[in-house]
Design brief:
heterodimer, A: 65% helix, B: alpha/beta, 57% helix, elongated
Chain lengths: 538, 205
């Protein structure tokens, strides 16, 4: 956004610049002696922009492309009527495609799920097809060149189809990625992406950038980039494949333009068509494959999140008695204070000091009830995983406060041994609270059979090296099975337990790149240790 | 109401403790507040007149245990339990151990205040009975052996003649013993004597 300018200035300038660059690239990707580019990118870029934009912004976005179009095309010596005619057909392509997408998919468009990707591929196919009839008709009407009508339709269609398949998924996936803020990638992930990109580029250059050893080898060479493309689709999803496909497309066409690669055997026209068909045929299934895989992973993630939430709600259900108590205390204080105030007013109305004290206490009590509700609401909310820098000591205090009522009712005495200057950890607050709550409740429940004065629960935090440890130790009945059995789903020793608490806690801690350990305590009881990587050493 | 009797409130939650204390104070009762069972046992002198209002789920030493501790210390102050959770077994146990009432928080003002007043009244009655009993026992201690024997027989409803026959003395002698006994006991009739005697007997439960 330009400082002080209207909000449409920056996008309009970006569209114009993008359109101009795409047009220049289109000229580069034109085979010698050919009037039609092998890969005409500007239309696809416009389509992608319209798909992402609001419908009421379409007109000025298209208008912004006009100067860029004129600037790019008029340099190439084309008659101005033709230049304007092409602008009309280019805009019509973008409009047809974007309207198709808008008709079937609500904003904002994302490349996920079969429906969305199917609609996008349909638009990428239908828009060039429909607009090519118009485009060829305009070319014949204006009388530019000698190419027959149907040949013009065909050539333009394939050129633009390939451009749509290359550009639109790329723009749409990256826009979605950047809309949510630049994701913080782990170093390993960046290295993997760099390796993948370098490998793909190298293979593409070797296959498409040097003359083939013999024409017989050509079909086999087509498969060489496939492992890298699959790698991109499997490991990096739709964004990965949408980024990898342009690399192959550009390398192939660049090779062909320079007379290298497998697409050099026939005439220029034959080579172009062959290349376009090959690239389009590779793109469609790979995009669908990546989307299908991504959707499955997402569903799995969602159902895991649901299960995590379910188990959290179940744990909170166990706490409900204690929470009712936590709310009941301030309510009691408020009511009794108010009633006392009424008596004071009736008996000695002049005592404003006493009334002030009462009101202060009522406010305190109300605030306390508010905190209980606040903590609860955070735990009940089905929130997306959100990582932030956390103080485990504070987390331990919050969770023990949440469980305070329940622990008091159960006669459990909690001792906190919190390390001073504990390094922070990176994690999801609610999920780590869930883990702690689970361990605390397990410990409390394990001590039901103990004598009331032996129900001790100790929570210790500790930092060693680059790790933060939280230890929850009870003096209950302990466990007699192998520790890893405790973390299996649906394993439970409680009569009405789901058997999910520890298993979900384990997966939460593992997802935080930490470990959850279980050990029996000497002298009876169990100890659970959560180890998480520290953000910065103490 | 006895000016010296006060209500001791025991609750670990300072907000609730202050609020309940204020409520009792606002209706003109003398109030002492304690934030734990230990503090109450240490500070509240035993045998003082009044009653105790305590939370059931106190940390470390809970309400029922504190009630037991009071019993063991022969502190007869009546107890009113207040609790966040109305657990049936706990309330049954509390009532069995002699609690005056078991009220669930938030407190119903009317029920709470009448429970506290009932507890204070119970304590006052018990103390009055105790005082009377002590006086009778003191008088009993002044009787000679023979006067004591006569007393038992009089209470059993026997005539002087029958008593004389049983104790093997003259009826005249018994008359003298009886008059002296009645005088020492400070009663004017057999009915009064029986009432005083009954005070010294353990209550039927």
């Amino acid at each position: 956004m330009l400082a002080g300018g209207p909000r449409w200035v920056a996008p309009a300038l970006a569209v114009a610049a993008g359109y101009y660059l795409a047009a220049r690239l289109g000229f580069v990707f034109t085979l010698q002696l050919q009037p039609v580019s092998t890969l005409w990118l500007p239309n696809a870029l416009l389509l992608a922009v319209l798909v992402l934009a609001r419908t009421r912004d379409w007109w000025w976005l298209l208008l912004a492309a006009l100067p860029a179009h004129l600037f790019a095309e008029l340099q190439s010596g084309v008659p101005s009527a033709m230049v304007l005619g092409w602008f009309v057909s280019n805009c019509s392509e973008a409009l047809i495609g974007a309207a198709l997408v808008r008709a079937f998919v609500a904003q904002p468009f994302r490349l996920d799920g079969f429906r969305n990707s199917g609609v996008l591929l349909f638009a990428a196919f239908g828009a060039p097809l429909a607009s090519s009839f118009l485009d060829a008709a305009l070319v014949r009407w204006i009388g530019w060149g000698e190419t027959p009508y149907w040949e013009l339709v065909g050539r333009r269609f394939f050129s633009n189809l390939l451009a749509q398949l290359t550009v639109v998924p790329l723009v749409v996936t990256w826009a979605a990625l950047l809309a949510g803020g630049l994701p913080r990638l782990r170093a390993a992930r960046c290295v993997e992406a760099a390796l993948l990109g370098a490998g793909l580029l190298l293979v593409c250059l070797l296959v498409f950038g040097v003359p083939p050893p013999s024409a017989h080898f050509a079909p086999a060479l087509f498969y060489a980039p496939l492992p890298f493309l699959l790698w991109a689709a499997v490991r990096f999803g739709p964004t990965g494949i949408a980024s990898a496909l342009p690399v192959m497309t550009v390398a192939t066409i660049w090779g062909a333009v320079h007379g290298a690669g497998p697409f050099t055997a026939g005439t220029a026209l034959e080579n172009t068509l062959e290349m376009q068909l090959f690239l389009a045929a590779a793109a469609v299934p790979l995009i669908l494959f990546a989307v299908a895989l991504d959707e499955r992973l997402r569903l799995e993630r969602e159902s895991r999140a649901q299960l995590t939430h379910l188990s959290r709600v179940a744990t909170l259900g166990e706490l409900s008695g204690g929470i009712a108590h936590e709310l009941n205390q301030p309510l009691t204080a408020i009511l009794s204070n108010a009633q006392a105030a009424r008596h004071f007013l009736a008996n000695k109305p002049g005592d404003s000091e006493m009334l002030r004290e009462i009101l202060d206490d009522i406010i305190l009590a109300d605030e306390r009830a508010g905190h209980v509700i606040e903590r609860l609401r955070a735990m009940f909310k089905r929130a997306e995983t959100r990582h932030e820098s956390l103080d485990m000591n504070a987390l331990v205090r919050e969770v023990t406060a949440l469980a305070h009522g329940e622990l008091t009712t159960r006669g459990v005495q909690v001792t906190l041994r919190l390390a001073e200057r504990l390094p922070r950890v990176n994690g999801d607050r609610v999920q780590l609270q869930q883990v702690l709550l689970n361990l605390i409740m397990n410990g409390a429940q394990a001590m039901v059979a103990c004598a009331p004065d032996e129900r001790f629960l100790t929570i210790t935090t500790l930092a060693t090296g680059h790790k933060v440890h939280v230890n929850v130790t009870d003096r209950g009945h302990g466990f007699s099975v192998a520790p890893q059995k405790l973390f299996e789903a649906f394993y439970t020793t409680k009569q009405d337990g789901l058997g999910l608490g520890l298993s979900i806690s384990h997966s939460i801690v593992t997802a935080h790149r930490g470990r959850l350990w279980a050990a029996t305590r000497r002298g009876g009881g169990a100890a659970f240790l959560v180890t998480l990587p520290a953000l910065a050493p103490a | 109401m006895n000016a010296a009797s006060s209500v001791s409130v025991v609750d670990d939650d300072p907000l609730v403790l202050r609020a309940v204390g204020r409520l009792l104070h606002s209706v003109g009762l003398a109030v002492e507040t304690y934030s734990s069972a230990q503090e109450f046992l240490a500070r509240a002198g035993r045998g003082r007149p009044g009653c105790v209002v305590m939370d059931l789920s106190l940390p470390e030493l809970n309400g029922l245990q504190l009630q037991q501790a009071l019993c063991d210390a022969a502190d007869s102050r009546p107890v009113v339990f207040i609790s966040g959770q109305g657990s049936v077994p706990a309330s049954v146990e509390a009532m069995k151990a002699g609690a005056v009432d078991f009220l669930v928080k938030p407190l119903n003002e009317g029920k709470f205040l009448s429970a506290v007043r009932a507890a204070l009244e119970k304590d006052r009655a018990a103390r009055a009975r105790q005082a009377g009993q002590a006086a009778v026992l003191a008088r009993l201690a002044t009787l000679t052996m023979r006067e004591g024997q006569v007393l038992r027989h009089v209470i059993a409803g026997k005539l002087n003649k029958q008593i004389a026959a049983e104790l093997g003395t003259a009826e005249k002698t018994i008359k003298v013993h009886r008059a002296r006994m009645m005088h020492k006991m400070g009663v004017g009739s057999v009915a009064e004597l029986v009432r005083a005697w009954t005070l010294t007997q353990p209550l039927e439960s």
